[in-house]
Amino acid sequence: MDTLLFVLIPVFPIIAFLVIAFLGNSMKESGGYVALVMELISFIISIYMFVGVLTVPSYSVDKYMIWFSLSHGPTFEIGMLIDGFTAIMIFIVNLVGFLVILYSLGYMHADPGLARYYAEISLFIAVMNGLVLSDNLFELFIFWELVGLCSYLLIGFWYRKPEAAKAAKKAFLVTRVGDVMLLFGMIILLYQSHTPLALNFNQLYSWAATSKFSSAELTTLTAATFLVFGGAMGKSAQFPLHVWLPDAMEGPTTVSALIHAATMVKAGVFLIVRMMPLLQYTPATELIIAVIGGFTAFFAATMGLVAPDIKRVLAYSTISQLGYMFLALGAGSAGAAMYHLMSHAFFKALLFLAAGSVIHAVNTQDLHKMGGLFTKMKITAVTMLIGGLSLSGIPPFSGFFSKDLILDVVLQKGLNNPVYMVLYILAVLTVLLTAFYMFRLWFLAFMGKPRGYDEKHVHESPGVMVVPLIILAIFATFSWMFLLLPSFSQILGISLSLNIPTMLIGVSLGLVGIYVSYMLYSAGIPKKFTSVVMKQIHNILYRKYWFDEVYGAFSIYIIYGFAKLVSMFDKYIIDGVIDGIAAGGVMLSSSLYPIGKGLVKNYVTLIISGLIITFILLIYVSPFLYGGGI
Amino acid sequence: MFLTVILLALSFLAIIFAIGMLYSREIVHAVIYIAGLFIILGLIYFMLDNTFLGAVQILIYGGAVTVLLMFGVMLTKREIMDKKESITTEYEYVVLIALTISIYIGTLFTVSSYPLSIYYMSMYTLSTVLFNSFIGAFVVMGVIIMSSIIGAIYMVKEVE
Amino acid sequence: MTAYLVYTPEILIMISALLALLFDVLDSKKLAGGIAIILNLVALVIILGWSGITGSILSLPQSGGHGLFYFSLFGYMFQIIFIIVTVSVELTTLDFSEYNGIFYALIEFALTGMMIVAISGDMVILILGLELAGISTYILTGYIRKSELSVEAAMKYYIIGSISSSLTIFGLSILYGVTGTTSLWLLNLHAGYSYIPKNNPLLYLGFSFIIAGLGFKIAMAPFHMWAPDVYQGAPSPVSAFLAAGSKTMGFMAMFIIFLSAIFYFAPNLSLLFGFFAILTMTTGNILAIKQRNIKRMLAYSSIANAGYILIAFSVDTPLAVAGGMFQIFSHAIMKVGAFIVVAVVSVFGVGESITDYKGLAKEHSLLALSFAIMLLSLAGVPPLMGFMSKFVLFSGAVQAGGWYILLAIAGVLNSALSLYYYARIVKYMYIDNPEPGKHKNKKISMPIYSYISIFVLVVIIVAVGIYPSPIIGYFIHIASQYMVWR
Amino acid sequence: MNEVVLLSLSGILLGLGLYGVLTKKNIILTIASIEIMINSAIFNFIIFSSYNNNPAGDVVALFFIALAASEVAVGLALALMMFRIKKTLNIDVMNSLRW
Predict the structure, then answer these.
(1) 3-class DSSP assignment, residue C292
(2) Helix D56-86 and helix B66-75: axis angle, to 10°?
């Protein structure tokens, strides 16, 4: 394989971005075709990579060039690490990217901001490819930030909706928390590892493998890996940083399918997959990852039960499934996580695109206003059903196999460790919930009677939108066949071994979930919940456990309050101290002088105060700390 | 001993003049007090046998700067006729400044010894140093004066 | 005669100031500005040659003492920054009708002062340089004499500035009293001798006054109050000059004084600078969040940047100093660009309130793109220049270990916080719709010179961000050389 | 002893100058107060120069005297400009630039 060819994978979308960004306004619709063609080329190269890696499963090449170096310090490089995980991830990103752009040709038709849309989405695909190809943590972090920026711009794409702008801001701020943690983790790793090439993955692995850690060093390493996981938590919407993802559904559905289901949110999982060789030295972090993952899987699923918005249900489902992946990572199996990532990318992209097709037809996202669409949109309904079955873990769809693998891994670990056993039980319960909310969605949308949409205009979506659905449905059904390839199993280190009891439990719970939702929702919305307890539970879930309220309060009272406090401090305390000195000396006389009055004498007062602080620090404090002085 | 007494007396006088400037209600009086202060400082330089600097101090500060300030006062006469300065002691500032000064003077007293030789500063020595070591600074000073003149002229020119 | 060739750049700039005065009399402002720019660029080329970036033009020793002056790569590097900033500002003003020859003369005088600060090897010449730049900028701030805000800003700037310079001179007098000389390189020569007392409290007293005085120039936290007022009131090109040029000059002066031999006599400054670094960056960022006027916001962001740079003074290792210089460089480029954009969009009728920037991308997409790049770079979004400089700076602090890591943590948290108010403006420009009645597109000629300078600055920001290797190497080279000097 | 007395005098003058800046309403008097501050620094130079037997201080003092004079010129020009615009020299009316 000619490795240098793979540099072109991010380059073609960048070309598309530049062309559309500079000529976009004059080309309108044809911008989509530019993006499509460029992405198709990238996709073909990524197939070439995927096939190449499948033929040589142990393939692992690191091509880099020196970027810059700090004297007496680390040398930073920029390069590509190409191995099995890269190839799989690149394949997923470009396949979904290509299909989503194809779908957008129909879905985004005649939107006024079309050029901006294609430019941003091309840029996103480019930086996402860069992220996957990165061979060191620093480079990955740069693309990580850029991916976040693209996400910010795309969520707020429909700027006329105030919710969209708000959601964009929220996504930005919440993921920022994760980014800061990642940066700190990175800096700790950088100065702990001292590898010749800073933060290069391969060198980190060999460093971890060869050095004997003292307990203090292990603590540092645990902190570092935990902080890196913090970054993944933000990007992959894990508890408690999950709040941004449901709101991000304000963006166009295609964006949700590409960024918030199939690719960007997977970046966190991918990061942890890359960190796995380090994580095995820090069991504490592994446990935290497993607990957060398992809890998030369950917790998000419960919120998905009652969400009225079709896309939000899918968003909660995404959070929940990401939790599964982290659970697998916490249990020490990168392969299971990666495989679930793959199958999830296919069926969740399928579900989102199908949901987009529905929204396109009925012009609403509210499940309560849909119903009875099966007869009108057969292809959409069937493909969505396939996606739903795959998500619910019903054989022979690929979701069944990937979920089963995770449950199996966790169970094996749980036999020795009670915490993992609890997580296993949670995960199994989640299967039930997943099947329930998924089929609630499906029944509400496609079964029963129409509930308040314009029936005349509803028809199947155009070909460019249906073809991606069909392709994705094929992948969602048959992607388990990859496991039959010995080289694929070898890359992931897993095999298609069927553990009958786990399988039976999973499938039966899935079927129970489907049955319950069939009983409740197949005829439409149930009139009311029978008992008070159910109503209360419904209420709690509907309010998303009041998370938004808590966060809102946090941002209002803590952050804004802090800013307010500081300005109050400036206005009242500093001046108050000055006045206090006067009062202590002579009398409590004059009123407060707000510095904000813009008077020169207040500024001079501050200068004198600064001078006194300097005196005290320099003449009276510093000498005692450093020796010498008076 | 005699020198110390005279220096103490002059210092005391200087402080009196400075306070007089701060507490005079008429602006013209304040400017006169400042001129007095500058001249007293010049006298202290004479007492230290630094005659050239004393002369410069009296000529430039006592003369030129005071005249400049007077012109400023006269050009904005309307204002001065209208209002007199209201004099109040603002104790918070007094405390703040007293703190600064006491730290300064306190530190002065912690230093055990200063070099004690007083020497006679001739104009010859001074000009040698000025035009040998400090010729670069002299040139820069010229540029500063030029830029301030240009700036001042631009500022007071009539706005068209 | 050849001995005076080392002053060629300063002399060229002086000549350009005088020529600008001449052309002011002849009433041809474009010519005045053009000649000033050309002479500045000639000086820039000469300095680039000396500093070893391009081939040498006049073969002169790269460093060495020369009476009051001390030539070093360090000084040349700062001179390059000063000239870039000045030329950008001058290019912008060519598009505006209100700036005439006097303006160029004054700005060239100010540039002369900055250049002198950069090559000073004596504290007297350093303060004279500071004052030359100071006096010229007082007038420049009040340049729009019809505007009440401009004159008020100038008056405030003058009062605070004079107080600060008198404090600096007072501190210098104490230092002179203790050491018996004002020459820094003489002090370096005598660094090991015992007759200059180490850890003398009087020395610290002098330092306190000097820090208070120079803290004004760099807008350090308790001495920062003038900066927002003056940047707001001054004409936008002058604000650019103050934020990028004058502040850089303050840092240059601090580097000269505090990172030179004096550090040997008074090693206890680390804690003080660490304290002021955290105080300054936090104050700047938190107060910036509240601002509604874009120039005030940029002023507070400039204050926050001063906080980041102060980390270099506290940590004081070659890598940290290199990071500090890199941050000074990138801040100067980004801030001058941001203020120039503010000046240019005001031509199109966009006000100074940040809500006036809503929907800017729809009407002036290139300006909005440049502004967004500058703001994101200021916020430290990779892979732009601002990210790289902060990364090197904070790496320096982390590498030094100990409590310096706290400074790096404070810096990272602060820059995460700062992204909020920068991103808000990017959002206004790209996502929101313009408010009705705003953006009256006056039919005017294209401000072509401003576009040139903005373009060049954006190219620097992006290029250095993507390929920082040579510039980081250069800064580290200078820093290690400078540390050897001391 | 003499030098401590004189250095203390310079400190006191600095403080009185600062107090003048803080309390005087008229800008011309503010400028005069700043002059007192600069004068105290110059005074220090001359004292140290005399006691250190080093002529450099006197030369530096000479420079700063000239510097102070040119600063006064610029300050008065700005004050006149402000008087022309605001019709008053009261320093407390300078508050249109604020928070």
Answers:
(1) coil
(2) 0
What Cα–Cα distance (Å) separates residue C151 from each residue in A579, C24, C145, C219, D83? 31, 22, 6, 20, 10
What is the per-residue pLDDT across A189-224, written as a single tens digit (0 to 9) for each? 888 888 888 888 888 888 888 888 888 888 888 888
Q: Is A597 on the interface with D (CB under 8 A)?
A: yes
Q: Which of A272-281, A457-466, B110-119, C157-166 has the lowest mean pLDDT?
A: B110-119
Asked whether the predicted pLDDT for residue B132 surpasses 50, the reply is yes
Domain that holds residue C437: 307-486
**Rounded distance, CA C323 to CA C329, Å?**
10
**Dihedral angle of Cα C243, C249, C255, C258, to the nearest 10 degrees:** -100
Task: Let me know if residue C480 belongs to a domain.
Answer: yes
ipTM: 0.90
Whether A70 and C476 lie within 8 Å, measured CB to CB: yes
- Cβ burial, residue A138 (10 Å; 0-12/13-18/19+): buried
Three-state DSSP state, B49: coil
**Closest chain B residue to C133, measured at CA:** B144
Cis peptide before C267 (omega within 30 of 0): no
Interface check A78 vs C, CB under 8 A: no
Say whether residue A596 is in contact with chain D using an 8 A CB cutoff.
Answer: yes
Cβ-based contacts of D61 with chain B (< 8 Å): 53
Task: Decide if D56 touches C, using CB distance below 8 A.
Answer: yes
> What are the structural domain ranges in chain A?
282-542
Q: In the structure encoding, which two tokens stand for residue C96, read together?
A: 């505006």
- Taking the C-alpha atoms of residue A164 and residue A169, their distance in angstroms, rounded to an integer, is 9
> Which chain A residues touch B94 with a CB distance below 8 Å?
585
Residues from chain A that touch C362, judged by Cβ atoms under 8 A, are none
For residue C58, give the DSSP letter.
S
Interface membership of D65 toward C (CB under 8 Å): no
Query: Token match 């041809």: residue?
Result: C28
Report yes or no: A498 at the C interface, CB cutoff 8 Å: no
> Is the minimum CB–CB distance between D19 and chain C shorter than 8 Å?
no
pLDDT of residue C122: 83
Nearest to B144 among D14, D58, D70 (CB): D70
Inter-chain CB proximity D61 and B53 less than 8 Å: yes
In CATH terms, is domain B2-88 a member of 1.20.120.1200? yes
Q: What is the pLDDT of residues C18-77, one digit of tens each?
A: 998 888 888 777 888 888 999 999 999 888 888 776 544 444 444 445 567 878 888 888
Q: Cβ separation of C112 and B110 shorter than 8 Å?
A: no
Give the type of residue at C435: E
What chains are in contact with B, requiring at least 3 Cβ pairs below 8 Å?
A, C, D
CATH: 3.40.50.12780, 1.10.287.3510, 3.30.70.1230, 1.10.3720.10. Which one for D2-93? Answer: 1.10.287.3510
What's the structural domain count of chain C? 1
Question: Using N-to-C axis directions, what is the helix angle for A310-330 and A334-362, rounded to 10°?
Answer: 180
Is C434's Cβ below 8 Å from some Cβ in A? Answer: no
Q: Does any domain span residue C240?
A: no
Name the residue in chain D with its Cα closest to that of A571. D99
Residue whose token pair is 């963006």: A251
Task: Give the domain ranges of chain B.
Answer: 2-88, 122-160
Using DSSP's 3-state secondary structure scheme, residue A444 falls into helix
Mutate which: C145, C184, C203, vs B, most B CBs within 10 A = C145
Q: Are A562 and B76 in contact (CB under 8 A)?
A: no
Residue B41: HSE in the Cβ half-sphere, 13 Å Cα cutoff = 35
Compare all CA atoms of chain C with the CA of A185 and give the residue at the minimum distance.
C409
3 state SS for A574-621: HHHHHHHHHHHHCCCCCCCCCHHHCCHHHHHHHHHHHHHHHHHHHHHH
Q: Does A582 touch chain D (CB under 8 A)?
A: no
